[in-house]
Fold this sequence. Notes:
Radius of gyration: 15 Å
Number of strands: 0
Structural class: mainly alpha
Strand content: under 5%
Number of helices: 4
Amino acid sequence: MxxxxxxxxxxxxxxxxxxxxxxxxxxxxxxxxxxDMVQMMADCIKTCRDCTDLCALCARFMSRNSDxxxxxxxxxxxxxxxxxxECERHDRDHCRRCAASCRRCAETCRQMxxxxxx
Length: 118
């Protein structure tokens, strides 16, 4: 595999991780909103909203090979870390699934950043 193929593969993996994270955060947010303790889940909902928006934007910018996608990957990783930390505070299956997806996405975004810096 040459460098261009490797970068294309890494880009595809990062887009996929962002889209999966977006799905898992949307599901988590919806489940939290349906909870009888919705007020207690306000911070979880808030961080999931930020994360979904940034994951979607990051995936779109990577898909069109924008010159700004490196900066978005950095911000996306930060949002994913924040969302994962919040979701890890709750003992709910959807929160655990969301946190794991956020951790994977953050790591993939950081790997994308390192590849672009090389």
